[in-house]
Design a protein that fits this description.
With about 280 residues, the chain is mostly helical. The chain is built from 12 helices and no strands.
Length: about 280
């Protein structure tokens, strides 16, 4: 009983925060901004919604830790594999280093595809369950503003953590392989395209899939699990890179980026079509 009361109190407190945040929303849409839903969109409303969600996430210790620890473990673990893997723990053979270092750089797409799902799922399903989403839905903001603001909040922290982890990985890898390769392997064009193009597109894919799932499920954990399915194609690509099925080059990354863009656009359209604020305000009571 006490846990139920504490949960209700937390939801009520968050709802009050929503109300305070919603009072700062611009009531008339910005005339120069085009909306994602065919009307007009206010950048101020989008920024207010994103900032509110970021403040909520910053207050959750478990979210902060998950965002930081996963990329950090990857950033340290992969260079250690370069150094100690192989027969007799002598490290990866020099001839294999270029291919495997590119594969390791691609692995940073995995946290970029996993981490946003947890944030986006809580932002929609968790707030629906706690009734803290209702005050926002009752304001004059458009569905496009709500979805874009929450998507930005789910996108920015994982991307920042992933990029930070990738920088650490490249620095450690260069330190451990320079004497064997005779030059600094990173940064290079392949890693730059992975981090600047594929990683953000993968994060957007994860966010959009989570939005689509969150519109139809009533459990945060289920939404997170379905949202994390975005990682599967990238994990498959990483495994194929590891075993040498193909190598990464500009053409392969360009085709991959184009496919992800198409998936992002399709998922956004589907998510926008399935987001029903009226249903949330009535059915979820």
């Amino acid at each position: 009983m006490s846990e139920r009361r504490s949960g209700a109190a937390a939801g009520a407190s968050r709802a009050r925060s929503e109300v305070r945040a919603s009072t700062r929303l611009a009531k008339p849409p910005h005339p120069a901004a085009t909306t994602l839903s065919g009307g007009r969109m206010s950048p101020r409303n989008v920024a207010t919604i994103a900032a509110k969600d970021l403040r909520i996430l910053a207050a959750k210790r478990s979210v902060r830790l998950s965002i930081v620890i996963f990329p950090l473990v990857v950033a340290i673990g992969l260079p250690m594999a370069v150094r100690y893997a192989g027969p007799g723990h002598t490290g990866i053979p020099t001839a294999l280093l270029p291919r495997l270092l590119d594969a390791f750089a691609f692995f940073f797409v995995v946290p970029a595809a996993v981490l946003p799902a947890a944030i986006a799922s809580y932002s929609l399903v968790g707030e629906k369950i706690e009734r803290s989403l209702e005050p926002l839905l009752a304001t004059p903001v458009t569905d496009g503003e709500i979805l874009l603001g929450k998507s930005i909040a789910a996108f920015v922290p994982p991307i920042a953590a992933t990029w930070g982890g990738a920088v650490l990985f490249m620095a450690m890898s260069d330190h451990l392989t320079r004497h064997r390769l005779g030059h600094l392997y990173f940064p290079n064009g392949t890693a730059a395209m992975i981090l600047a193009v594929v990683v953000p597109l993968a994060a957007i894919l994860s966010v959009e899939l989570s939005v689509l799932v969150s519109a139809r499920v009533s459990d945060v954990r289920a939404a997170q699990q379905f949202g994390a399915l975005a990682v599967l194609p990238f994990a498959a690509v990483y495994l194929m890179l590891e075993i040498g099925v193909f190598t990464l080059d500009g053409a392969a990354l360009g085709i991959m980026a184009a496919a992800i863009v198409a998936a992002d656009l399709g998922l956004f359209a589907a998510g926008r079509a399935t987001f029903r604020r009226e249903e949330i305000l009535t059915r979820w009571r």
